[in-house]
From TrEMBL:
This is Reverse transcriptase zinc-binding domain-containing protein. The lineage of its organism: Eukaryota, Viridiplantae, Streptophyta, Embryophyta, Tracheophyta. Residues 14-80 form the Reverse transcriptase zinc-binding domain.
Length: 181
């Protein structure tokens, strides 16, 4: 018989802490689905419909289960390499997503990276980057409400060589245009 997700054993096992975090509800839901192996991965789809191949649609080399999709897949590894999380921390997952989230949370015990605005206020966050090898400049803007829900997002990738100073000016112009609607 399935236990309710808010049971005392879930809280003690490490899962309950995620619900108390100040992160967007969709991230919490994703984490819960990950921990319950309820993501729409090819391996899961294959168990319900054997005609569906369980091969990873990204790398096309192995069966796609949760561990493959997030750790073993070469594209997942490349993605993690671009993140700010150290690989030793990412690869510490032993199959229990709840414990993994808790472990990462403890290791990253630092400042909150995003604080929501007061109720009724929309917060706009933005960032930009230059890509020296390709000569591209990327800018992105996201607007979220007090619960962390994305109201709107925009991004632009511009193809030209630019110094960081010029990229900053372009970035500021995109943010200004976005703020005006």
């Amino acid at each position: 018989m399935d236990r309710p997700s808010s049971s005392l054993s879930d809280l003690k096992s490490g899962w309950g802490f995620l619900w108390s975090r100040r992160i967007p509800p969709k991230v919490k839901t994703f984490g819960w689905k990950l921990s319950k192996n309820a993501l729409a991965l090819m391996g899961n789809l294959n168990t319900k419909n054997p005609e569906v191949a369980d091969i990873c649609p990204v790398c096309k080399t192995q069966g796609e289960d949760v561990f493959h999709a997030f750790i073993r897949c070469p594209v997942a590894r490349q993605t993690w390499a671009l993140s700010s999380l150290p690989w030793a921390l990412v690869s510490s997952w032993q199959g229990d997503a709840a414990q993994w989230f808790r472990y990462i949370d403890q290791k990253l015990d630092g400042p909150v990276l995003w604080n929501p605005p007061p109720a009724g206020v929309i917060k706009i966050n933005c960032d930009g980057a230059t890509f020296a090898k390709s000569g591209m400049v990327g800018v992105g803007v996201v607007a979220r409400d007090f619960e962390g829900r994305v109201i709107e997002r925009r991004q632009r990738l511009l193809e030209f060589k630019a110094s960081p100073e010029l990229a900053k000016l372009i970035f500021e112009k995109v943010v200004e245009d976005y703020s005006r609607g």
